[in-house]
Amino acid sequence: MKVAVAVLTYNRCDYLERTLNSLCGNPGAFDLFVFDNGSTDDTRRALAPWNELGAFTGMQFNDTQIHTAGFGMNRAIEMALTVEPDVILFSADDYRYKPHWFSHFVDFWQNAPEDVALASLNIEPAYPWNEITAKVEYGWQRAIIRATVGGSNWSFRASDVDLIYPIREITGGEDLEVCRRLTGNGHKIAALNLTDHIGEHESVWGNRSWEYAQPLPADIMEWIGDK
Fold it and tell me: Which member of 47, 165, 181, 185 has the lowest number of beta carbons within 10 Å of its beta carbon?
């Protein structure tokens, strides 16, 4: 399975370093792209050593005045598509990937049924908009089926890109629009426990949805575990 990972960053230099370190525990296993959505901090300087080491298949910088999440997501996905992958993982710059994440990720997509169109590698807490509808196991990867998953961590088959892309170029709600379109057309959305969202409480665009988070039910916590 050919995998492309596309990381979107914006003024998150410290978090980005941790995200890249956790991703690169699997060197050579996938093509890695970074799209900087117009950062004004030390991001460009921090990326330079990684680029010199050949860590990235591609790296681009946004020099326009458009810095919405949707804009950056679209550009990052476009970069990933250039290598004609089987599966794309889109990630924001504030996730710590668990050491085993890649093998579980590949196993999931090798075994997921066709009606699963989108999967996050992060288990969000309970919100009014991300109802859990099922517990599933594909291959040896357990997951849950939800109404929505946060747009900062999405994976999907490249053959399904037209179901997801282009994303509306706004910040806030761009992910919910896509999720609702998918479920409205009979597709399923999964969530896997393969990352920690280390920057969730420090959004660069002021997202405070975490204030409305509720704990997941005990049976769900037991199901997803912490492999």
Answer: 185
Residue 11 · residue 39 · CB < 8 Å: yes
CATH fold for the domain made of 3-224: Spore Coat Polysaccharide Biosynthesis Protein SpsA; Chain A (3.90.550)
**Burial class (CB within 10 angstroms; exposed 0-12, middle 13-18, buried 19+) of 150:** buried
The string of DSSP codes covering 54-119 is T--SEEEE--SS---HHHHHHHHHHHHHTT--SEEEEEES-EEE-TTHHHHHHHHHHHS-TTEEEE
Helix (H) / strand (E) element for 33: namely strand 31-36
DSSP secondary structure letters along 105-157: HHHHHHHS-TTEEEEESS---B-TT--EEEEEEETTEEEEEES---TTEEEEE
Give the single-character DSSP code of 179: H
Per the CB < 8 A criterion, the answer to whether 80 and 90 are in contact is yes
> What does DSSP say about strands 58-61 and 87-92: parallel, antiparallel, or unpaired?
unpaired
Q: With a cut of 80, say whether residue 61 has pLDDT above it.
A: yes
Asked whether the beta carbons of 94 and 199 are under 8 A apart, the reply is yes
Tokens for 93?
A: 């710059």
Summarize pLDDT for 116-153 with one digit per residue, the tens.
999 999 999 999 999 999 999 999 999 999 999 999 99
The structure tokens 């679209």 sit at 74
Domain positions in the chain are 3-224
CB atoms within 10 A of CB 187: 18
- pLDDT of amino acid 25: 79
Q: Which residue has the tokens 């492309």?
A: 4
C-alpha distance from residue 118 to each of 27, 97, 164, 172, 182 (Å): 25, 18, 9, 19, 8
